[in-house]
Write a structure and sequence with these properties.
Blueprint: H1 2-11, H2 19-43, H3 46-49, H4 55-80, H5 88-120, H6 126-129
């Protein structure tokens, strides 16, 4: 939802006149589509059919790359906002897009942390941690 807000707010402005917003559009739209693909993969339980793919590692790498690229998109978007714009609604939308790009970057960062824990197996529950191999 946050990525959708970023690219829809930028798309509602005259972003094609500024090259910086093209980068923000690319990052937000690419990771929005990629996140939707991961969501559909997990909802349809396709990750269980493709068991040879290390899904926790794939998610961790994807989230880490999204965090770094959203950091660049946030900085680019925030630096390109001009308060003396001749179109006030463009200024408001671009400022809101900068805010939501920052929130999306933080969200992907938190998701990277939890993906790392899942990849390392640090998030095991009480039932699996009580099992021992003493036979």
């Amino acid at each position: 939802v946050l990525g959708l807000l970023v690219w829809s707010l930028i798309a509602a402005t005259t972003y094609h006149l500024h090259a910086a917003y093209g980068w923000v559009m690319f990052v937000s739209l690419f990771f929005w589509i990629l996140t939707l693909l991961f969501l559909v993969t997990y909802l349809l339980q396709l990750h269980q059919k493709f068991y040879m793919v290390p899904w926790p590692l794939v998610l961790m790498i994807s989230n880490a790359v999204a965090t770094v690229l959203y950091l660049t998109a946030f900085v680019t978007c925030a630096a390109a906002v001009q308060p003396t714009s001749w179109r006030q609604w463009d200024y408001n939308r671009r400022a809101a897009a900068s805010f939501f790009a920052c929130v999306t970057m933080i969200t992907y960062g938190v998701s990277t942390f939890f993906s790392f824990r899942a990849w390392k197996g640090l998030g095991s529950n009480a039932a699996t941690s009580q099992v021992t191999d003493h036979a």
